[in-house]
Automatic annotation (TrEMBL):
Pfam families linked: zf-HC2
Membrane-spanning parts: 76-96
The UniProt record lists the keyword Transmembrane helix: yes
Keyword Ligase: no
Domain Putative zinc-finger: 15-38
Keywords, sorted A to Z: Membrane, Transmembrane, Transmembrane helix
Coiled coil: none
Protein name: Putative zinc-finger domain-containing protein
InterPro entries per record: Anti_sigma_zinc_sf, Znf_put
Length: 229
């Protein structure tokens, strides 16, 4: 079986729903071991079916389906509590894809097409040695931009910016080329799982591969993130 055939036969769904004749099962098994697309599809669909199984714990079926002719890791589908007709399960999979997955993507694409104000915090103009710690107030769901300058030195081929969260763990690490470092750097800080409090941004110069040495700290910036209710 090749990939086109597998797609045309809806092999993944039929395999998981035990609707495949044994010869085809063998052929498909041979195929998906070597096909990253089909095996990814199998894993995703299997995970969905496992979730659907939980949803269906309440469903009561009067008459259990006959036992499958062959043991399968997806046997749970055939236990009385889950023995919905396979076709209904398939419909649920399709409905899930249409109602949940696609509108979700459509929504994200629409958001990407709509211009949005990005709050930004500028650290340009020096380290905060003395003076107030600059701060930004954003909604928890809102990304923001952080801009700063890198004090460049000719001996560095690139720079690493490390952002430490208030709890001291590294929130992210980003590498900037010497060319990019000539201008003010602007980094977008994503929303979600973002701690509030005082962050530290550390800029290091990366020693050239030929003269490998310890990274040199070039700048420390501190800033505070507050969240709007
Ligand atoms: Zn395939």
């Amino acid at each position: 079986m090749n990939h086109d055939e597998a797609t045309r036969l809806m092999a993944v769904e039929k395999y998981l729903l035990n609707e495949m004749p044994p010869e085809l099962r063998d052929e498909f098994e041979e195929h998906f071991f070597d096909c990253p697309e089909c095996s990814a599809d199998l894993r995703a669909t299997e995970a969905f079916l496992a979730a659907a199984k939980d949803e269906m714990k309440e469903v009561r079926v009067a008459k259990p389906s006959p036992a499958p002719s062959r043991k399968s890791p997806f046997e749970f589908l055939w236990r009385p509590a889950f023995a919905l007709p396979a076709f209904a399960l398939l419909l649920i999979v399709i409905a899930y894809q249409n109602l949940v997955i696609y509108p979700h993507f459509a929504n994200e694409i629409a958001q990407l097409r709509t211009p949005q104000l990005l709050p930004s915090l500028s650290l340009a103009g020096g380290n905060s040695r003395g003076g107030e710690t600059p701060s930004i107030t954003v909604r928890p769901s809102q990304p923001f931009a952080l801009s700063f300058d890198i004090p460049t030195q000719g001996r560095f081929s690139s720079y690493t910016c490390l952002l430490y969260s208030p709890s001291g763990s590294i929130a992210f690490q980003i590498q900037v080329s010497a060319q990019q470092a000539k201008d003010t750097i602007s980094i977008s800080i994503p929303a979600g799982h973002r701690e509030t409090g005082t962050y530290t941004l550390k800029v290091q110069g990366d020693a050239d591969g030929s003269a490998a040495g310890p990274a040199s700290d070039l700048a420390h910036y501190r800033f505070a993130v507050k969240e709007q209710d």
